[in-house]
Amino acid sequence: MATIFWHSDRVILTDFLEGERIVMASSYKALLRKLKTALARKRRGKLHLGVLFHHDNALAHSSRTVRTVLREFRWEVIPHAPYGPDVAPSDFFLFTKLKEHLKGTLFESMDDAKRAVSTWCNTQPPGFYKEGLRRWRPYAEVPRG
């Protein structure tokens, strides 16, 4: 399973969960710490502007542990609309496009699959990610103001 954190310009962090492991609050919290480091590196000098963060309502994402770390980071969480599982931009936009690209591809190893995902994510044309967010915006409960 791939977890991909992205914004309007590009992918910030891709993490792969191998085997039949599931995402737990503690592992998601650690992943958010990696994301914060990646954001500081890739958006150098812009974190003071704030972070609007969206994730779905999975149990690990809504745990007290994760809510605490998001408050610690001072990230503003965009609520996930409860009326559809495909409303997350990664679900209806990013992964849909990625699956179209990878359809029919057989990988010799997990490393080959990871490389293909990372290469695809990093070679999208200018405006690709912004378009995904633009299409998602009508469904988002984005704070105004």
Automatic annotation (TrEMBL):
Signal peptide: none annotated. InterPro entries: RNaseH_sf, Transposase-MT_Hybrid, Transposase_1. It comes from the Eukaryota. One of its GO terms (molecular function) is nucleic acid binding. This is Tc1-like transposase DDE domain-containing protein. It comes from Trichuris suis. The lineage of its organism: Eukaryota, Metazoa, Ecdysozoa, Nematoda, Enoplea.
